[in-house]
Amino acid sequence: MQIDTIESKISLSKTSRESANHVFVFLEVFAREGGIQSYVKDIFRAYGELNQDYQAEVLLLRDSPEYCNHFASENLKFHYFHHPSPQIGRIKIAGVLLKFLLQKRPQRVFCGHINLAALVQTLCQPLGIPYTILTYGKEFWEPLKDRERRALASAEEIWTISRYSRDRACAVNGIDPHKVKMLPCAIDGDKFTPGTKQPELVAKYGLTDAKVLMTVARLWSGDIYKGVDVTIRALPKIAQAFPEVKYLVIGRGDDQPRLAQLAQDLGVSDRVVFAGFVPTEQLVDHYRLADAYIMPSQEGFGIVYLEAMACGVPVLSGDDDGSADPLQDGKLGWRVPHRNPEAVAAACLEILQGDDLRCDGEWLREQAIALFGMNALRNQLLSLIQHQ
């Protein structure tokens, strides 16, 4: 009886190790910076913190080995397929994926982009190996090609970052909502922290004694949904109550001349400061300049809201997008119609008055990290993997 028990434990241990054999397939993670790339890196970080029973091969179509990769470990092994000919790169990644499927028989393949979904379906489905498609947002908000829709329909699960992203994708692409699971964006609470306003930056941007509204966004003409123009239109009303108000806009793009002209037309050009591009490592010091983070946008999630909250800065978002999740349906911030300057102005006045619990920086930071910190991401990832 005792021998049977020991053998049973060995068998269970072996089964556990085998069941945690995964393959991840992504377009690119290290070749460029962006929201998707940051999200995937957080997933790598969370997976790498799981115990050694979890083993994964990571295939990267457009990345090369020379890119700095701090995530390689005993349970995450990376393979790179960048090639001057995109077609040859795809042939090579398909060959290696097929080899892993035949030799390792992974419990599951995780497809990191809809553009890879048809390839993953083609190789996994005949072998009976289930796959999960990871989605970030806009890439599957609009009607997809038939082959991509078939790949979504055949997936065991679809992971996405917010309820809004799930609902919009399901509506336009006929996806079963029960198939979609949440793996939200995360915030590094050790990196984004409260702090005093740096005198050098205050002087650089002319913010002495100012009440500072701030937005971090691409200033592209195709991205006017970020709402920078709406906030500029709200400034005259805000300035009536807070004459010292200034609006710090961080980001660059071809829409900046239009925005600057709008500020001039409204007589608030002296209140709008275009800071241009700010490197990621300097963002924390810039968040600390803000008395409020204002972005009445339409986001798939909105990681910038979490970054601001982790720095103890109250936030304002649009009311018809994925920001409902980081703002917890308004519990952690102000949500207003995203193209309504009057609503933005009214909410900004409430924030700058500072009487609301949502202006308590310490409380705001605690809530954001408890719900969306790296520990929360790791626990959610583990829950999803164990559920399979």
In brief:
The protein is of the alpha/beta class and 388 residues long. It is built from 14 helices and 13 strands.
Your description of this structure?
With 388 residues, this protein is α/β, with parallel strands linked by helices. It folds into 2 domains: 13-186 and 374-387, Glycogen Phosphorylase B (Rossmann fold, 3-Layer(aba) Sandwich), CATH 3.40.50.2000; 199-372, Glycogen Phosphorylase B (Rossmann fold), CATH 3.40.50.2000. The protein has helices spanning 2-19, 35-48, 86-104, 117-124, 146-154, 163-173, 199-205, 228-241, 256-265, 283-287, 303-310, 341-353, 361-372, 374-387; strands spanning 21-26, 55-60, 76-80, 108-111, 131-134, 157-160, 180-182, 211-216, 245-250, 272-276, 292-295, 315-318, 334-336. It has a 7-stranded parallel beta sheet, with helices on both faces. A 6-stranded parallel beta sheet has the order 10-9-8-11-12-13, sandwiched between helices. Strand 11, helix 11 and strand 12 (315-318) form a beta-alpha-beta unit. The two termini are 31 Å apart. Residues 1-19 have low confidence and may be disordered.
